[in-house]
Amino acid sequence: MTKLLITEITRMGPAFCVIGLQRENEKIHSIRPVPSSANGWMYFPHQRGDILEFSLAPFPGAKPHIEDRISTRTFQKSSALAEAEIVPYLRRAELARSLSELFGCKIHENKKGSGLYATPSEAQRSICGCETQNLRIELCANELRACHVLPSGEVLRDLPVVDHDWRNFVDAALAPIRGANRLPRLERFLNSHFQYKIMSCPHHFIRLGLTRPYHELCWLMLDTLFPLPRQEWLGEF
Amino acid sequence: MNNSRFPLSSKKDSPRRLVEDCFRREAGSAAAIPSDTVDLVEAGILDSMAWVSFLRAVETASGVSDLGAGLNERSASLGEVLAALQNSTSEISNVDDVSLNQKISSSPGQAMLTGSSAVLGARLLPSEEVDRAFGMPAGKLRSRAGIESLSYVADGENEITLGARAAQEALRAAFCGAQQLDWIVATSETHHDYPSLSAQLHSRLLVRENCGALDTGGACVGLLNALVIAQSMIGSGQAQTVAVVTADVHSRTLTPGRVAGEFGGLFGDGASAFVLRNAARKDSSEGYRLGEFLFGCAGQYAAAIQISDTKDGSLNVQFDGEALSRAAITRMEKVLAAVELRSGIPRTSVGGFATHQPNPRLVALLAKQCGVSPSTFPPIARVSGNLGSSTCGAALHEALRNASKQPRHDRRPIFLASLGPGLLFGGGWLTPHD
Predict the structure, then answer these.
(1) Which residue of B55, B69, B168 is in closest CB contact with A187?
(2) Could you give the angle at the alpha carbon of B139 between the alpha carbons of B138 and B141, nearest 5°?
(3) How far apart are alpha carbons A124 and B97 in whole angstroms?
(4) Which residue, of A45, A72, A89, is where some domain finishes?
(5) Are residues A20 and A117 in the same domain?
(6) Domain that holds residue B55
(7) Is B123 contained in some domain?
(8) Are A99 and A168 members of one domain?
(9) CB distance A114–B53 less than 8 Å?
(10) Residues of A with CB below 8 A from B55's CB?
(11) How many domains does chain B have?
C-alpha cells in the first residue's frame, strides 16, 4: 500500500484529477493515482489533506506525466492533515523559482493569443510548486483564469484555474440564490479582498500543472492555490 | 440567420473583419466562419483555452481592454464578441467612426484622482541615530533641519516592493482592479536599474499585458511630471485609467562614507501612488479633479545641487545648502503664486499644500512667506525625512486623507509645488470633484 497526502484535486470537464505526496526515505514527491480506464476520477469523495492508502502499479506514466500510477484497487482514508500543515510538505516536493525550472524545459508563449505551453518530449514532469509574488484571478468570458508572478519576477498570464475548491467557490458565488449583481460582486471581491486574503496568508502557495498533450502541446494551468477558499468569504461580498 | 442584437456585417465593418481574422488565427486559416449565434465552446469549435486565447487576440488587435469581463454570463459566440466590442468602444466614445483606433483616440476626458496611497520604509530611526551614523554631532539634523526621525527600508524592501505596495493600496482605495489600468507612469530618483521601475511594477502588479509602462525623470519634481503625463494621456483619450507611482530608497545610495551627513542625512525612503481616471467614467464619482500644471527650469540655480557618478563608484555631490535653501523658498513661493493666479483659487481657501519638503525648517519658512498656516503642509519631512520624488506624493496623499475626513461639501482645493535639480520647478492644483 502507498500512503499519499492528497494535495491536488482539480476539475476539467466532468472528471477529477488527483495528486498526492509520497514520502520515500527523506524525499517527497508527487504521485497522480489514476483509474485503470481513464486519466481522471468521475467520483472522488475525499478532500485535500486526507491521507489515503492506495494500491498502485509501480510503472510511471509517459512523459511528461511521469507522476501517473494506476490505482489497482479501491483506496481508503487513514488520517488527515489541516490545510496549514500541507504546505510545508509541498515546499519540500517539486519546487521552482523560475519558468525554466518549473517543468525542466523551455516554456513557450502562445503566439496566436494567450497561454503558455511545453512540448511533451521536453517536459520532465507535469506538476511543480512555487511561491507567488503576486496573484490575480479573473473571470474572463465565463472562464476562470489566473495571472501569477514567479519569485524570479517572470509573469504567467491566463492560466486556466482548475483547482476544484476555487472553482466551486466561484460557482457558489454566482449561484442565483445569492441575489442580484452576483457577477460585479464577485469581480469586486477578486479585485480587492481576494488578493489580500491570499498574500497575507502565511502558507500561501501554488502548484502549476501541465495538461495532457493536446495537439502535441501541454498547456500550463493553475492546479492548486493555498489557502483554499472559505465558505464564510461568500458572506463578505 | 441574423440576430438583431448583433451588429450586421458591411464593407466598412472593421470590427467584424478583425474578429474573423482573430478567429481564423485560432481555428486555422481554412476554418469556416460560424454564424453569429453559434456557441463556439459548446459546439466544440474552440476549447476553453482557445476561446480565451481568441479573446485576448481580439483585445490586442482592437486596443479594447478587458473584453472578457464583458462576456461573462454570455454565450461564447462571435456575435457576443462583436456586441461586446461595440459596447466597449461606444462607452469610450459616442463618435460614429469606422475605425476602432480612431474611436479610442478621439475621446478626450478630464483626469480625476480617485485613489491614493503612501508607504514608508519599515524602519523609523530617530534622527540622532542618523547623526551618529554620518559622524555628525547628535541632534544636528533635529536642530538645524527640524528632522525628528527618518524612515529607512528594512531588509527585503526596495523601490519595487514599496512602489507595488503603494500602488496596490491606491488601487484598492479607488475600487479599481489592476487589470483596468491602461498605463503605469513611474518615477524615482534612486532606481536606476533595468528592467526599469515601471516595467517591474507592471509585472509585480499583474496588470494587463497591453497596459503601457513609462518612466519619467525629474527627481523631486518627478511626481508632477508623471501626473501631467497621466493627465495628458487621459485628456487625449489614449488612456482611461492610469497609475502614477513614485518610489525612492535613498538609504542604500546616500550612505555614510559616500556623501556628507549634512546632505545624506536629510533623506528617507518611501513611495506613493495615485489612480487617475477619466472623470466621464460612471465609476469616477468621488475624487479630486486635476487642474492645470505649470513647469519650468531656473537654470541660474543649477550649480546649487549636482550629483554624478565617478569612475571609482563613488558619488560626486555638489551641495550648496545655503544657496539651495534660498532658491527653493523663492522658487516655490513663486510657483504657488502662479498656481494661485492661474487657478483663481486664493491661497487662503486651500485645504492642503502638497509641496516638496527639502527639510521641515524650509517648509515652515515657506508657509510663513506665503502667509498660510504651517498646518496646511502635511509633516512628511519632519517624521520621515526628504523622500525625493515621493515627498510631494506622500504630502498629497496626506492632504487627500485629511480632506476625506471632511464632509464632501467642505472639502477644499489642494495646491502642488515641487523642485528638482536644475533647478526644475512645477506646480498645479486639484479641486474636489463635484
Answers:
(1) B69
(2) 110
(3) 52
(4) A89
(5) no
(6) 14-105
(7) yes
(8) yes
(9) yes
(10) 113, 140-141
(11) 2
* Residue A175: closest CA among B52, B177, B73: B73
Interchain contact A135–B (C-beta under 8 A): yes
Domain contains B5 = no
User: Do the beta carbons of residue B259 and residue B315 sit within 8 Å?
Assistant: yes
Same domain, A101 and A83: no
Which domain covers residue A160, as residue numbers? 95-236
Of B105, B125, B141, the position where a domain reaches its end is: B105
The amino acid present at A130, given as its one-letter code, is C
CB contacts of A137 in chain B (<8 Å) are none
Of B398, B400, B432, B395, whose CA–CA distance to B417 is shortest? B395
CA angle A80, A81, A85 (to 5 degrees): 170
Do B28 and B76 lie in one domain? The reply is: yes
Determine, for residues A112 and B200 on separate chains, whether the beta-carbon distance falls below 8 Å.
Answer: no
Let me know whether B49 and B194 are in one domain: no
Whether B99 has a pLDDT exceeding 50, the answer reads no
Predicted confidence (pLDDT) per residue in B349-396, tens digit = 999 999 999 999 999 999 999 999 999 999 999 999 999 999 999 999
- Is the interface score ipTM higher than 0.90? no
Residue from the list B50, B55, B73 with its beta carbon closest to the beta carbon of A183: B73
Contact B55 A140 (CB under 8 A): yes
CB A186 within 8 A of CB A174: yes
Distance from CA of A156 to the nearest CA of B (A): 9
Q: Considering CB atoms only, which of B48, B53, B67 is closest to A112?
A: B53
Residue A13, domain CATH = 2.40.50
Among B49, B175, B206, select the one facing A134 at the smallest CB separation. B206
In this predicted model, what pLDDT tens digit does every residue of A23-78 receive, in sequence order?
998 899 999 999 998 989 999 999 999 999 999 998 999 999 999 999 998 888 99
- The mean pLDDT value of chain B amounts to 89
pLDDT class of B284 with cuts at 50, 70, 90: low
- Backbone conformation region of residue A140, classed left if phi is above 0, alpha if psi is from -120 to 50, else beta: beta
Interface of B with A in 204-263 (CB under 8 A): 204-206, 209
Residue B8 maps to a domain: no
Chain B hits for A183, CB-CB cut-off 8 Å, are 72-73
- Last residue of one domain, picked from the residues B105, B136, B156: B105
DSSP structure string for B214-259? EEE--GGGHHHHHHHHHHHHHHHTS-SEEEEEEEEE-TTTS-BTTB
Rounded to whole angstroms, how far apart are CA atoms A168 and A154?
28
pTM: 0.80
The answer to whether the Cβ–Cβ distance between B72 and A141 falls below 8 Å is yes
Contact B24/A at CB under 8 A:
no
Residues B301-343 have pLDDT tens digits of 888 899 888 888 788 888 888 888 888 998 999 999 989 988 9
